[in-house]
Each structure stands twice: as C-alpha cells, then as structure tokens.
Design brief:
Length: 295
C-alpha cells in the first residue's frame, strides 16, 4: 500500500495526468525559456490551475506540479515560495474538481535545470553527494506545501537515482522514482534492471517505473521493475513522436494508443499516465481503457 494514497500493487489502476507543459503550450504560452512551465508560476498561475483542472476532468487522479525545472539557482530568493506555489495551485485544482485525487510534487533531474537536454544524457560530472545537496533544498521547499507525493521523475542514470533517494531521507513525504530510458537501458546507458535494483529496497519509495520514454519501451520496463522490486509500478511515457530539426516540430503520428494500456496493466503497471505531448484527450482515453479493463 502506498502510504496516504490508497495505491497498492495490483489494486485498482491509478490514472496519472499528461504533459502539463504541452497543455500550457497548446493554450498559447511560450515556454521556450529556461524555466519552462515553471515561468507561469510567477506570471500566470491561474493558467496552471486551469491546466491541472482539465486533466482532472479528463479522468486523471494525480496532478504533477509545475516544479520540474524549478530550482534555487533559477528563481533566486523567490525559489522556495514558487515551489510551494506549484503544489498549492495543484491543490486548488483538486478542490475545484473534488473526489479522490492526489498531488505529486515534481522533482526533475539536475539536467532539467540546465535547459539543454542534459536530462536525456545524465552523467553530469557531479558526485552523488553534490547531486544530493542540489536536490534536498528543493524537496524541503515542496514538502512544506504538503503534497501527497514527491515525483522523482525523468531520472537519467543510477547516480542521480542514488542522490534522490538519499535526499528524501527524513522529508516525510512518500515518493515515486521513474527513469527516462531508451530501450532496456537508462539514458546514460546502464542496464535498466540494475537501475531498478538500486531503488528496490528504499522504504521511502512507494512506486518505481519509467517516464518520458517511447511507448514501445514501457512493457519490457514494467517486467524488469516487477522482477527487481516488490513495489507498485508507475509508467507515463511520451507520445513517441520524432523531432524534425529542420521543421522544428514533432512529427506524428503519436504511438501512445489505447491498445497499449491493457498490455501495460497485464504486465503489471499500477499507475498509468503520460508525459510530453500527452493531452487531456489522451488521458481521457487512458481513463476509459482502465475503466473498461476493470469492468
């Protein structure tokens, strides 16, 4: 059982939200700066509330906050307040919609704060201790606002996973950890089974899985997670589209399809949602599929 959430391995499948930044961009917001969606925490917070609410109304039970790229280095003296605000905005959306829903405070990888794609490479040249010192103040600020969970997400390598797990010690908020992967390896090239094993026995970790990966990589990853740890498995891939550098656009079609969701559940997924380029309509599809599968 996931403390405080009602999520348990092989219990009812929990539906996550989709790409918050994708939804904000679809509403016309320019997120090209280094703060990405976190910029709107200061500039247009109601838009973040509205995007969370849209995912909730589409059937999501978990909202992941707009703090993925938030850091003390980027926000300066307002950093802690902005991180707390990210949780508070998701909580407002939850109150508006009602029902059984949770707020997961996003703790993105160190590479995300560099805004240069480093989170898809990992191996930053920093020690585990240095990464732990970077992440711990962010977690403390987010925890002050009382999220239900911390989402340690888009983790590219084992070293950063170890740092994140060290940083959550004593925070008092349960967390999930999800790697970003390519095939059966982390983005840094480590075997995914070994990466899962690093986190398998951590008592503060209540789910383990993958996110921001191709949909086709999910099912094998679920099986590896099941073998490595007796924890609920979380999966939320991106759309699987390819980036066309010439056109500077994502090229369809999306490979995030309704046919995949039952396969993920049968393989052992307990929490299912989407990441980049997954819209509320996609989450509504996941909700319908999960409901029909349960029936």
């Amino acid at each position: 059982m996931v403390p405080g959430t009602g999520v348990s391995a092989r219990g009812p499948v929990i539906v996550l939200d989709g790409g918050l930044a994708t939804e904000l961009q679809a509403r016309g917001h320019d997120l090209s700066g280094p703060l990405w969606s976190a910029r709107l925490l200061a500039d247009e917070p109601e838009e973040i509330v509205s995007a969370h609410e849209t995912f909730f109304r589409a059937g999501a039970e978990v909202a992941t906050t707009a703090s993925y790229q938030a850091s003390f280095e980027a926000f300066g003296e307002n950093a802690a307040a902005m991180m707390r605000r990210s949780v508070e905005l998701a909580q407002v959306a939850r109150e508006r919609v009602g029902g059984r829903r949770w707020v997961a405070a996003s703790v993105g990888p160190y590479g995300a704060t560099l805004a240069d794609g480093s989170e898809y490479r990992g191996r930053y040249g920093l020690s585990v201790a240095e990464l732990t010192r970077f992440h711990r103040p962010r977690m403390e600020a987010l925890a002050e606002a009382g999220p239900d969970l911390l989402a340690l997400e888009t983790v590219p390598d084992i070293d950063e996973a170890a740092a994140l797990l060290a940083a959550i010690e004593g925070i008092g908020i349960p967390a999930w950890l999800s790697y970003t992967i390519s095939g059966d390896r982390t983005r840094a090239g480590q075997p995914l089974g070994e990466a899962f094993a690093v986190a398998a026995d951590h008592p503060g970790l209540v789910a383990l899985g993958v996110n921001c990966c191709a949909p086709g990589d999910v099912e094998p990853a679920i099986r590896l997670a099941r073998r490595a740890a007796r924890k609920p498995v979380i999966v939320y891939p991106n759309s699987g589209e390819e980036w066309d550098a010439t056109r500077r656009a994502w090229t369809p079609p999306s490979r995030f399809t309704a046919e995949l969701v039952p396969r993920w559940i049968r393989a052992g997924a307990d929490l299912v949602g989407g990441c980049c380029r997954i819209r509320p309509a996609d989450i509504a599809m996941v909700r319908r599929t999960v409901d029909s599968y349960a029936a």
